[in-house]
Design goal:
This protein is α/β, with parallel strands linked by helices. The protein contains four helices and five strands. The longest helix is centred in the N-terminal third of the chain and has 18 residues, at 23-40.
Length: 121
């Protein structure tokens, strides 16, 4: 099973999904991320899905689950790099990804998290 790397940039954790995720790798990612959020005190999580070309309800639920889990651990989640076809598919599947904020790219995702933290202080 291939594990998804989790990078740290200040108090933000960055996950770049470059492979097709299977059930086991998603469960491992969720566990790894929860551990890293707690151990680093991260305040934000960015999930980069630039390389994801096709989504299904499984991927949509995975993104929503990660966002909910991160929120419970006091970290906001932003999904970046969503392709138009992916957005269309998620809407057609009826997946609103409640609680998941989005940004066009990594730079805008970091800026969104910085803005969110500065207004909540």
């Amino acid at each position: 099973m291939e594990r998804v790397p989790i990078l740290k940039l200040g108090d933000i954790l960055i996950i770049s999904i470059q492979v097709d995720l299977e059930d086991q790798s998603v469960l491992a990612l969720q566990e790894d991320l929860a551990d890293r959020v707690v151990s680093t005190g991260a305040r934000g999580v960015i999930i980069d899905i630039t390389a994801v070309e096709i989504v299904d309800s499984f991927i949509g639920r995975m993104l929503a689950t990660i966002a909910a889990m991160s929120r419970m651990l006091d970290a906001e989640t932003v999904v970046v790099g969503m392709r138009p076809a992916v957005a269309i598919t998620l809407v057609e599947l009826g997946l609103s990804l409640g609680g998941v904020r989005t940004a066009l790219d990594l730079e805008k995702g970091v800026a969104l998290l910085d803005h969110t933290r500065s207004t909540s202080r």
